[in-house]
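Letters spell out the chain; backbone shape is given numerically. Take this protein:
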Amino acid sequence: MSALVATSRLWDLAPIGLDDLMERAALQTRVDRKYLVPLTEVDALLADLEAGTEILDIDGTRVFTYETVYFDTPELTSYLLTAYRRRRRFKVRTRTYVDSATCWLEVKVAGSRGDTVKHRAPYHREHHATVDPGREFVDSVLTGFGQQASFAPTLVTRYRRCTLFVPATASRVTIDTDLSWHDRHHRLHLPGLAVVETKTSRAVSTVDRRLWRRGHRPTRISKYATGLAALRTDLPDAPWRRVLRQHFTAAPVPLRKESAPCFALPPLPWR
């Protein structure tokens, strides 16, 4: 059981259903601020939340398992656009909500004002490792990016997430723990680290201010790009070099050759 699942703080918060959360804070176009927080400090952060903060609750479950497959071109176009900080960048991924066995195909693009615009469409879970059935959707979002090359699965991330709603700023906060990454050759698991992300329309949320008071500042991290850089030291990693040195200190573990062709990862203890 993960530490996030075990903490009683999650059960001190009022619940909010998924439909209500999406109605009040869908935030498909938003400003994201990410923080890397030691897992040992998450409980104190939860205790410091403002009154009225609610937590996503679906049938009594408040911590959910996510699995995301990221796709890139043979030249790693998506990765390199981010590594070289190009303004017009994108990500293509499938996201599987393991607990509900639902899946979405998502394309995220950088907006004109530094925000993030996410496009998503329902997807069959059995297609989670390919974009071929959804290629028309992907191409429609990436019009103007000139991406006609094939997309292949490049990286898989897994983690546990709880989602908070802060009514005062109509913002969301996600806390991800039990973080792991793998490609066809290596796996990296960072159980002692949490990624806290605030998602707002633009204004700073009260959770941002609480994190600042605790000495945490927004960090340049991308689950896709930073994770891939941690697994592949041959790639340019300038935007995340400090993060990699400070937080991604565990060595990637080689995967068995027989497991590589299917792009699969052995279950983690909480699976």
Observations:
- The longest strand covers residues 152-166.
- Residues 223-231 form the longest helix (9 residues).
